[in-house]
TrEMBL record:
GO terms for molecular function: oxidoreductase activity. It comes from Cryoendolithus antarcticus. Residues 6-143 form the NmrA-like domain. The lineage of its organism: Eukaryota, Fungi, Dikarya, Ascomycota, Pezizomycotina. This is NmrA-like domain-containing protein. Keywords: NADP, Oxidoreductase. Transmembrane segments: none annotated. It holds the Pfam family NmrA.
Amino acid sequence: MEAICKVAVVGGSGNLGQPITAALLKAAFQVTIITRAKSTTAHPSEVAVVRTRYDLPNLTRAFTSQDAVVCVVGLTGVAMQNTFIDAAEAAGVRRFIIDDFGWGPGMRNLPELDAIFAERLDCRDYAQAKAAANTTFTWTGIAFGSPIDRVLRWFPAMGFDVPSRKAIIHDDGTEPFTDQFVKIVPIKTCQRELLEAFLGAFEDEWEVQKSSAGTHVGDGREKVAGGDGSGARDITLAHIFDPD
Ligand SMILES: NC(=O)c1ccc[n+]([C@@H]2O[C@H](COP(=O)([O-])OP(=O)(O)OC[C@H]3O[C@@H](n4cnc5c(N)ncnc54)[C@H](OP(=O)(O)O)[C@@H]3O)[C@@H](O)[C@H]2O)c1
């Protein structure tokens, strides 16, 4: 296969899209960000941006002459990924990176997360079927589990509150968090190892609480049932840390 040089990133303005775009630029790919016609997101000035309606003819035009497409749209856009795949194939794109960026197939999960995983699985099956029927079209899923830097920032409940020097260790704190698919394992660690690292890095005392990740499922379900969307985070926390 000829080298991939031109890469379009759909959703390049997002939480993951920004670092992915920056890494592609650093690796000297010619990057184009594809953004929705009415989006107000900002993009680095040095990157080409194609603003377009997300339908098959327009996306096909946007992907024409690209070697690869990275699909990294936010959760609500995952459902339309099959249209991105159709457009990429029609435009002659040789490699499509599907919007997984999670745990990949085969991961145990809580029923609350079934719908999210089912949608991703559908896209993966769709890409797989396309590739089986057309040898010039290939796809890759990248799964890295829970990125540690994001987890630490996003969820104080993930265990570490650095400014207050407090830690909550769920269960025995040894559940590894990072994983699967085209398995990217830049760091594989667990709460206990991170706690050791924090204790080594700071001279202050840390207040360490014990917790059980499994109990967060009940709390999360109760919150969601009561209309409090933050319960989804409790459920995700249990998904990541509950060893059972
Ligand atoms: N493993 C993990 O822990 C982890 C953590 C975070 C995210 N993820 C996964 O990574 C992927 C990207 O997530 P993210 O948090 O980076 O996304 P995000 O920041 O919410 O959104 C990324 C971009 O997608 C575009 N977008 C948003 N809604 C869309 C829609 N309905 N239709 C089409 N495009 C839409 C927007 O770009 P424009 O406005 O420029 O069009 C947005 O800036 C998702 O699959 C997510 O589940 C995984």
